[in-house]
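From the methods appendix. Each design record in this collection lists the tokenized structure first, followed by the designed amino acid sequence. Records were kept in a plain field format so they could be parsed without special tools. The example shown here is representative of the layout used throughout.

RECORD:
FOLD TOKENS (316 positions):
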């Protein structure tokens, strides 16, 4: 941090943003690190309703989620980035089960983390070594969408996704927590959902119980990824052939008419995945699972979890 004096907060912020875009991030913004009081109240109310399901990790380290200084000591500014994952080519839907678009290619954690490390190295080339700096992408108790919103990267839609008003919502979010004084964004993006209810009305399981209120216990993404054990038989749900995740509330969102295909080769569909059909999925063995999803986020649900989902869909 000793050499930061050669740059103003404004100039260093400009350089960081410029380099982030050169690395391939689609959007970048900066916010000042402070406790998220309003967001903390919202999360507490959401947890009290039991909408987190079995995701008990959301109940741990809560204060670290609300206060960045408790997560990384000395944090003064947070650089938030968006990375597009909207595919140019999608899986066939005829005679096929569905996978959420974010899991088509390589695990986003690895791809984005490497870019964030490069961005951090660039920052340190101007400031000297920053011992307290950290890079995160869906890997720590952080309210990702809240910080992205505060960095003027979008608004939180009724489907609870971060929505960029010119680019849609098919983005991964990453952050750098920095012990530096940077220039925060001054403009705010208004919530532009208006009276639209397309996401709420389209959800086949009624998981969006109200605007900005997602009950994970009914959410296809939660039930096919996070939920352990059998999918509850007493819940008469229509999963619409989604075997890993679900994109319905994003697919119907009018703002995603602006979504453009990503430029990340590692996120592209493999030929093996493109050739799979329902019969192939229903006969899936562990060796084929490992071949199809090497280095993929689908590994999160493991072979047994994906087989459980397929068996549920087959008998639905």
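DESIGN:
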């Amino acid at each position: 941090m000793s050499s930061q004096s050669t740059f103003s907060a404004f100039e260093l912020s400009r350089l960081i943003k410029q380099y982030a875009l050169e690395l391939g991030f689609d959007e970048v913004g900066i916010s000042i690190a402070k406790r998220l009081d309003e967001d903390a109240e919202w999360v507490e109310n959401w947890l009290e309703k039991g909408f987190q399901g079995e995701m008990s990790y959301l109940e741990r380290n809560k204060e670290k989620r609300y206060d960045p200084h408790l997560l990384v000591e000395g944090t003064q500014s947070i650089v938030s980035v968006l990375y597009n994952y909207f595919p140019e080519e999608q899986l066939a839907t005829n005679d096929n089960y569905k996978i959420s678009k974010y899991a088509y290619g390589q695990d986003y954690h690895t791809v984005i983390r490497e870019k964030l490390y490069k961005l951090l190295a660039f920052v340190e080339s101007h400031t000297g070594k920053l011992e307290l700096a950290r890079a995160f992408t869906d890997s720590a108790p952080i309210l990702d969408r809240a910080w992205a919103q505060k960095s003027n990267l979008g608004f939180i839609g009724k489907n609870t996704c971060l929505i960029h008003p010119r680019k849609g919502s098919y983005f991964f979010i990453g952050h750098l927590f920095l012990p530096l004084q940077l220039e925060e964004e001054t403009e705010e993006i208004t919530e532009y959902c208006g009276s639209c209810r397309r996401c709420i009305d389209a959800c086949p399981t009624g998981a969006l119980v109200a605007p900005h209120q997602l009950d994970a216990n009914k959410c296809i993404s939660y039930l096919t990824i996070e939920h352990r054990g059998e999918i509850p038989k007493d819940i008469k749900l229509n999963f619409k052939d989604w075997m890993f995740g679900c994109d319905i509330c994003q697919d119907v969102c009018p703002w995603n008419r602006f979504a453009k295909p990503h430029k990340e080769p590692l996120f592209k569909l493999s030929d093996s995945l493109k050739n799979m059909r329902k019969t192939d999925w229903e006969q899936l063995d562990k060796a084929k699972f490992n071949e199809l999803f090497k280095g993929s986020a689908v590994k999160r649900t493991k072979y047994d979890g994906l087989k459980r989902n397929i068996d549920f869909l087959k008998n639905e």
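APPENDIX NOTE: The radius of gyration is 20 Å.
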